[in-house]
Amino acid sequence: MNPYQYAVLRCVPRVEREEFLNVGVVVYCQRADFLDVAWDVSRERLASFAPSLDVDTVCAGLEFVAGVCRGDAALGGVAADDLGTRFGFLKAPRSTVLQPGPVHGGLTADPAATLADLLARLVRLPHGMQE
């Protein structure tokens, strides 16, 4: 089993209201040399939560996170750093619409499966719930 850390990515349309919806999860597992993000944005859910929100901007922010995880050379800077530094960048608090939540940890034999499980449990609507 390998220790891992994760942060839930939150869409926070109005920071002063401290309301958010979970939209993604970043998982970092040093021993497995793993850093990845999974996300699921429901346009309908975000539109009902924050009608004036530009959902495309939220999705672009999530694509940026994915690029940092992949080490996309086109992003330069932080995307060229080691995985631990990239995770440190991604988990740092920001005052933007897309914010990381607190970092949590656990043990995993399969970081990709753990990422999929966290996305299902923490981001997607529970089975049977309607949008």
- Number of beta strands: 4
Number of self-contained structural domains: 1
**Binned strand content:** 25-35%
- Global shape: globular
Distance between the termini: 37 Å
Radius of gyration, taken over Cα atoms and rounded to an integer in Å: 15 Å
Order of helices and strands: EEEHHHEH
Largest sheet: 4 strands, antiparallel
Kindly state the mean pLDDT as a whole number?
91
> How are the strands ordered across the major sheet?
3-2-1-4
Approximate helicity band: 25-40%
User: What is the overall number of helices?
Assistant: 4
- Summing up helix and strand content along with how strands pair, one would put the structural category as alpha+beta
Low-confidence stretches: none
Topology readout:
Blueprint: E1 2-11, E2 21-29, E3 34-39, H1 43-49, H2 55-70, H3 83-91, E4 98-108, H4 111-122
Antiparallel strand pairs: 1-2, 1-4, 2-3
Structure, briefly:
Pfam families: DUF3037. The chain has 131 residues and is an alpha+beta fold.
Task: Tell me about this structure.
The chain has 131 residues and is of the alpha+beta class. The protein has one domain (2-122). The chain contains four helices and four strands. A four-stranded antiparallel β-sheet has the order 3-2-1-4, with helices on both faces. It comes from Marmoricola endophyticus. It holds the Pfam family DUF3037. This is DUF3037 domain-containing protein.
